[in-house]
Amino acid sequence: MPTDAPNEPWWVDAHLDLAYLDLMGPAVEADHPTPAARGVSLPALVRGGVRIALGTIFTEFGSGGAAWGYVDHDDLEGAHAAGVRQLERYEAFERAGRIRIVRTRADLETCMKPGGAPGIVILMECADPIRTPEEAAWWHARGVRAVGLSWAHGSRWAGGNARAGGLTAGGRALVQALDALGVLHDASHLSDAAFDDLCAATDRRIVATHSNMRAMLDPRERHLTDAQVSEIARRGGVVGLNLYGKFLARDRAATIDDAVAHVEHAAAIAGRTGVGLGSDFDGGFTPADCPAGCGRPDELGALDRALGARGWGGADRTAFMHGNWMRVLREALPQD
After folding, report:
1. If you write DSSP's letter for every residue of 303-316 in order, what string do you get?
2. Taken in order 246, 127, 46, 10, is the CA torsion positive or negative?
3. Max CA-CA distance within the chain?
4. CA-to-CA distance for 48 and 12, rounded, in angstroms?
5. How do beta strands 158-160 and 163-167 pair?
6. DSSP one-letter code for 140
7. What secondary structure does DSSP assign to 172-224, as a single string?
8. What is the H or E stretch that residue 330 is in?
9. How distant, in Å, are the alpha carbons of 114, 216, 298, 319 from that of 47?
């Protein structure tokens, strides 16, 4: 059985928009020239001990002139091209030796060892770039290992947290195609109806890579209900803590204690094996929008220390840092 703790503490971060940030510029291969503007870079992942991350393909409809955008949900070719553009950024990083795309369990075990390039599991955050259910196999062959059917404003496949609606007929067919490939389902941006429909359409594992607790915030569907957390845990999934301050506290600056409170609320439902990190660092916000002292990968130690101060022992903190996500990825990824 592989060990999860070689030498020093390290992290799996289940949500980073690396390709999107790179396309926005400046390139993520080096630290941002204005540290207050952006904390994420490939060097910052190494410094922070983030050995494995789920790196997104993030595309947005209504932004047809942007490298990551397309006109609308019917713009199949535009959405496809926007997704491929980001996929090609990860492939270019890999050719340059800056990352390793995690396609198999063997890749995962290699990337968890200290001293190598960060391992990136490719997550498609909205499935509009997949033109047909049959095309899911092409994306899987290129390295995509997790898919969220919708971003906030919905997709051709499903409603999103800012657009009502469940799965479409095409969405149910896409779920079947993804299941046949063993692709992991990410529920973070689904509407409540789409979440319920996804659960009805598949008996497979579901995760929420970057979602916090609705009971502690407001009724918006961006946050998970206790029942959704329970269902994710029942299926062996994990909920990833989002460190965006407005997703941690209402009407005031969030603190590291707020972040821990969300973790503990989720853990009270899912157990300490059902929670992990999904920071979403720089995903439309800056380090200043996170809890003070925990706004970039090399500041994640503050979160570990805060959990320790709340009585979390070493084994539970290690599970939160990487062990729980490693369990999910080991079980979800193909052997070779």
Report:
1. HHHHHHHTT--HHH
2. positive
3. 51
4. 11
5. antiparallel
6. H
7. HHHHHHHHHHTPEEE-TTB-HHHHHHHHHH--S-EEBTT--BGGGS-S-TTSB
8. helix 324-332
9. 11, 32, 6, 20
- Provide the 3-class DSSP secondary structure of residue 101: strand
| Spatial CA neighbour of 152 closest among 189, 183, 122 | 189
Radius of gyration of the chain (CA): 18
Q: 23's torsion region: left (phi>0), alpha (psi -120 to 50) or beta? A: alpha
pTM score, two decimals? 0.96
Q: Pick the closest to residue 186 from 140, 265, 122 (CA basis).
A: 122
Tokens of 288: 């200043």
Q: What is the pLDDT of residues 38-77, one digit of tens each?
A: 999 999 999 999 999 999 999 999 887 899 999 999 999 9
Q: Domains in the chain and their CATH numbers? A: 11-332 (3.20.20.140)
Beta strands in the chain (DSSP E): 11-16, 50-57, 60-61, 69-70, 100-101, 119-124, 144-147, 158-160, 163-167, 184-186, 206-207, 239-241, 275-277
What is the three-class DSSP state of 275?
strand
Give CA 139 to chain center in angstroms: 17
Higher pLDDT, 3 or 139: 139
Query: Cα–Cα distance between 295 and 305 in angstroms, integer?
Result: 15
117: pLDDT confidence band, cut at 50, 70 and 90? very high
**Prior bond of 26 cis (ω within 30°):** yes
